[in-house]
Amino acid sequence: MTLAINPKDLVCMDDVAGRYHFRVELAYARDDNLLFGERIYRENARLWLYRELAEIVCEAANSCYETHGLRFILYDGLRTIEAQEAMMRTRRALDNPHWTESPRLLSTPGIGGHPRGMAIDIGLEDESGNLIDMGCPFDFLAKSPHPEHNPAHRKSEHSRKIKQNRAILDNAMVKASENLETPIMLLAEEWWDFRLLPEFYKVHAPISEIALPENMKMMG
To answer: Hey, what domains does the chain have and what are their CATH numbers?
Structure first.
């Protein structure tokens, strides 16, 4: 039996951004996103996270800024089933069928942390808004998920500086999760992806657009 997620358990990160050292740049509400090059979410969509993950992100963002002077960029959180389905229908996804072959680079609709608001995609920038070099851009998808062919993989080879940059983000998130006693998983294939543990999110049902009030819907 799976548990339905109450929309009241989702936090709008746009609404709390002014109190923490992060900004929201919802990637798929833009038509110039790197991955698809076309808009998936509606233009006024907002970024929602399950409350436990939201708390981790807020604490980690402040810690990262206080320690390193770097600010979080939040690119994506809740990704409804319908949004995942729309991603599969984009021209770029259709042109790259290997993205849906095992091991998948694009999740099956309804699978994973994102359709439950239990995964977050994060980048880093300095106080002037300059992106921190993480070895490849957010949402870079390689032809292969394996470390030797995928610069986004957490075990891929990079310069010492890039490894240090990634460690700053990883350590901030892991430390906050430990402080709040909520374990997280760092997705191996994507340096930007942090999520609650599978044994937690798998007992919750993925979220459909029809289950959300109008102000929370991601799609047009």
So the answer is: 7-216 (3.30.1380.10)
